[in-house]
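Here is an idea for our session: we take a single protein and study its fold together. Start from the sequence, derive the backbone structure tokens from it, and show both lines together. Once you have written the record down, we can walk along the chain together:
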Amino acid sequence: MNTNRREEESLKYWKYPGARWWKFDFHAHTPASADTEHWQKSIGTEQEVTPEKWLLRFMAAGIDCVAITDHNSGVWIDRIKTAYEKMKSQSDNGSPPEGFRELTLFPGVEISANGGVHILAIFDPNATTSDIDTLLGAVGYQGTRGNSDGETNKSAAEVIAEVLKAGAIPIPAHADDEKGLLRVKPGTKQCSLSANTIKQVLEVEGLLAIEWCSAATPFPEAVEKQASALTRVLGSDCHSFQGNNAPGSRYTWVKMAKPTLEGLRLALLDGNGVSILRSEEGSFDPFKIPAHIIRAIEINKMKVMGHGKPARFEFSPYFNAVVGGRGTGKSTMVHALRIATQRENELEVLPEDSEPYERFQSFRRVTEGRDDPGALRQDTEIRVEWQTENSLLRVTWQAADEKAIVEEWQNDQWQQTESQAINASRFPLRLFSQGQIIAMAGKGRLALLNVIDEAAGVESLQQNFEEARRAFLTQRTQLREIEGKLTTLPEVKRRLQEVKEKLNFLKQGDQAAIQQAYAQARYQEQILSDTQAKLHNMVEMLRGTAKQLILDEWPPEYFGESDVDLLQWRREVDAFLTKICQSLEQEICSLEQFVNSLESREQLMAWNSRIRSIYNKYEELQKQLASQGVSDSQAFTRLTQEQQELEKQVKTLQQLETLHNELVSQIQRQQELILEYRQAITQKREEFLEQKLEQNPYVRIQVVSFGFDKQIIEQSLRELIEAPDERFQDDIDKLVSEITTNTEDINCKLEKLNNIRSVLLDRSDTIGGRFSNYLERKLQKPEFADYVMTWFPEDDLKIQYQRNNQWYEIHEGSQGQRSAALLAFLLAFGEEPIVLDQPEDDLDNHLIYDLIVRQIRENKLRRQLIVITHNANVVVNGDAELVHVMDFKNGQCVVAQSGVLQDKQVREEVCRVMEGGREAFASRWKRLGKEI
């Protein structure tokens, strides 16, 4: 799909609220301009350019907004607007002209100011030819309309002032080229025009932008500072449909909610890189959205939200701000999202006395009355609509059973998905509630470590570690089972020796030869039986092997006509394998016939006859012994059978002995593998932090292998030995100090970990008697030793923040400094949606701008942001694409207003509910005038 077609499709199906990008041509001429030579020649011919043809060419170029800027004339503006309205009406009635797409027309004019400088004036889309004529009169243009040779009576600075007075936007045309305000002398940075004249123009309050044709052209040195503050836009300067200036040849991407003059003005104020992008700046996909976005959150029948009708929050793929006074439900939305996406565990790993944990636990209770602290009701329902690259999902959580279901939008309806998993891989999300960030900088570092693991992809390494640990535990269980069986080996050997001695005694005398022959025959019969069984098993084993020589079918949906060569390769492989299988089946049949024929072989028949003769003689001997008064005539038979059984037991136990020795070696290797995987986890964390925090001016984070915090390590050790209270404190303090006294040398730490394990397993003299007796009881359960042998304290994080170009430990900083350090890290990585609940708390104003606002602007280029805030600077200077204003009315938290900052009603609501709102707008858009 070509670029224009893709943009057309994206626009057609653009379904997100808030601001988006529009393809804007700031400078386009019509046949009303006398220097459109090709168009002038075609007048009166079939090639004559009509308003309809003109419009269709810009539509074909994928232009969304075009400024009609003829030389000192607006005569074609009404004609083009009339033609467009007719085409739009046909489209609305279901019969659009071929090639029609919606287009916003911005009436304008290119004015030739006194001194030869050209100035574009861009009016509101409702303006007409009359408005252009009025402006031309105000600037004193008395030349021929449509020509560029005449000039106004007023200077360029005065022309710009008149344009602003008329309510339009002035933009010096092709400022770096011929007739341009800022053109320089060839090969220099010297002004072609008088520097004083240029400065007068640049000092006009309200001048926001210039048309700049080439990014490579330098600003004049004398006015470089002033000029660089202006937004640089591009237009085609189209004079015909051929050549380098055709429609779509040069344009500017402008971010607005709707194409209005006010929206354009605000975008120009934001400037390049924020709300303005030039077509020459390389590849830019204005409709690219993150792989995962939250489309909407819907809250139904909470205690103070969603009664009567659900409270629904829809979101832009970019930066969404949720604002409001205290008690208006801002954090309610965050808690609801946490519940529905099953992210409660991120708070549960915080200390139980931490404020965010306690607040959330109070919130998620089902209320039993008006004064009860819970926020949920039995019939509360939370829905989250979630968009991935190829599907739209919905999670619905109900308080009644505290369960959630996952559905997918298919065939114009919601259908339950086969997988009901709700996890971080399916719904990747960063969610940081108020106070959570501060907690993670302190005793809640484990929660921060979990965030790092999820972002760094440590999960697979964790799985390797846990699987290796489980394999070790299984091996140890097998070892104990084998050792239990091997305890019988000495006794079995003793009994075997005793049986052999009795048999030797019985073999002495006349009957010895018969009994010996009988014993030998029994052995032969057993060996023959085993051999015959193995031969039959070989046949079945080969048949099973033949069945495995068949490849799985390739899914046909992944191969097409272009893959003929690959499919032919597969057919040849299948044919060869079929041939092998056929040959193998023939050989198997031959083997089976051979095995079956062995039963009737002459050699076997002769052996059977000989064996029967031996058995007959043995039976006759037993009768003779019985007649002579021998009490146990079956003694030889019984002892012979017992010898065979005992020898079999010895053989089995000796095999177990070999297996035991192998298993001991495997367990040793498995312990080494566990350590290797555990260290790989630490290394992955270190690499991630090094990459994401390189040259970060706010925060440094170091991974400390196996931790350094005495309290955290003690908790881990007590969980291991199942002594969560304060028992054995002196002994445990000694053990923990082994690790915490030297936190840098990893080899030293590993040695000390082994020392601790030895103390626990051997109950050395260094520990007290009560602790030793307790461990003795624990060791009666053999699996306890296994857990001790694979115990590793969790890694910890040393966090430092920078102040006055020096680094300090995080605990030495103020709450604001700790928060800033963690925010700088959390915003430094990730492409999944991120939700921040009042991140500016405890930050001073310069940190709010330098850290939060800058990071928001960088983050929204790659991820969706939802920021709950009471600071106007975050909303205004962060350039929120969509704003939800919350309020408390009639006992309910409601969305009072939703929209974009260019909407006056939204700005008024922001100013009403946010302290410093007017100051923030005034600071950002001070050149707009007094009205916000």
User: Anything to note?
Assistant: Residues 521 and 896 are 100 Å apart (CA to CA).
